[in-house]
Specification:
With about 350 residues, the chain is α/β, with parallel strands linked by helices. It has helices spanning about 1-40, 115-120, 145-160, 170-180, 205-225, 230-235, 245-250, 260-270, 280-290, 310-315, 335-350; strands at about 45, 65-70, 70-75, 75-80, 80-85, 95-100, 120-125, 135, 165-170, 185-195, 295-300, 320-325.
Length: about 350
């Protein structure tokens, strides 16, 4: 009976809701087009979240010094200002690079960073453009997979670090692993958590069944756009949310003008092999399966409806990886089980896992 209900939900109910949401998306686009014909809207290209939005973070464990950089892209131009954390000794032999996903920021790693620093590691945790304390493009069209990967490559060049252990989750995996493929010599290890490398799905009942929770989330995100309710999403996504923690996740986004990056990321996940991101993801998958020979730790949680099952894809791509299931954690497993994750990673780096 439970199996029948699950199949009904994923093969009948979810597709029906998705189709209804896509109808509303189409109506929204038509209305937006008509509105644009009669009203001209003037907005800045880039916005910066006011500093006072981040004033109370020490009370919930985010006590780290900010670092900012304007990364040059040539011709006298720079990217929007990027914020990153840089904790621990600068001469450390081990460097941990922590990459967040959607719609979180470096705040997500606040429970893990002290464990890494106590172990003698240097920790780099950037906020992607559009998130956290980094600046934010207002127009969603400025957010592309190439922009995010370029930003990370330029930041790593600027900091000039090698021997990196990549720790990635959600979109941090799609971006981070793509950069590993581009510049593998500066990476020593991979820690892959609650993420995926989707290169588009083939149309079949089984694929629709597996992808339906994400497709439902994607349709909601497309309909809501920059009205994405970050506070409420995190409240649903965290297992034991505290109001102060939820306010911290919501802090980067004082108004819809600041949410374009968060609104765009779900739409960048490739649905078919013809999507813009699919080609790069396919090359990344091929690289990991055929050329990556350094250590890998795969840690997925047991209560994540978004990336459930994706750990099997990584196990196929990286059959020699060490694998651990994190019990009692949801999609944002750094929030739910941060210290446990950090201790596993320290053991992994020390070849004791």
């Amino acid at each position: 009976m439970k199996t029948m209900k699950r199949y009904f939900k994923r093969l009948v109910l979810f597709p029906a809701i998705i189709l209804a949401l896509q109808g509303l998306v189409l109506l929204k686009r038509v209305c937006s087009f008509i509105y644009s014909l009669f009203f001209q809207r003037t907005t800045p290209i880039v916005v910066r979240t006011p500093g006072e939005r981040f004033q109370d973070l020490a009370s919930v464990g985010y006590t780290f010094m900010p670092n900012y950089v304007d990364l040059p892209i040539g011709g006298g131009k720079t990217l929007p200002r990027v914020h990153y954390l840089d904790e621990g000794p600068r001469d450390a032999k081990e460097v941990i690079l922590c990459l967040h996903g959607e719609p979180s920021w470096s705040f997500l790693y606040r429970h893990m960073i002290p464990v890494f620093v106590d172990a003698g590691y240097r920790v780099i945790a950037p906020d992607f453009i559009g998130f956290g304390k980094s600046d934010k493009y207002v127009d969603m069209e400025n957010y592309t997979h190439n922009m995010h990967t370029m930003t990370l490559r330029l930041l790593l060049d600027y900091i000039s670090v090698k021997g990196i252990t990549l720790v990635c989750q959600d979109w941090g995996g799609l971006v981070g692993l793509s950069v590993v493929k581009d510049n593998p010599n500066i990476f020593s290890r991979l820690v892959i958590m609650n993420t995926g490398l989707p290169a588009g799905i083939e149309l079949s009942i089984n694929n629709i069944y597996r992808a339906s929770p994400f497709l439902l989330w994607r349709s909601f995100a497309e309909l809501l756009g920059t009205s994405l309710p970050v506070y409420s999403l995190l409240k649903l996504g965290l297992l034991n949310p505290e109001p102060a923690v939820l306010r911290a996740y919501d802090a980067p986004f004082p108004s819809p003008m600041f949410k374009s990056g968060a609104a765009k990321w779900p739409l960048l996940v490739p649905l078919t092999s013809h999507d813009a991101v699919a080609a790069d993801i396919k090359v990344t998958r091929d690289y990991l399966s055929s050329e990556w020979e350094k250590p890998v730790l795969i840690m997925f949680s047991d209560k994540d409806p978004i990336t459930k099952g994706q750990e099997h894809t990584f196990k196929r791509l990286l059959p020699r990886a060490v694998c651990k299931t994190i019990v009692g954690a949801g999609h944002f497993l750094q929030e739910d089980k941060g210290e446990e994750l950090a201790f596993h990673i320290v053991s992994f780096v020390n070849e004791k896992l």
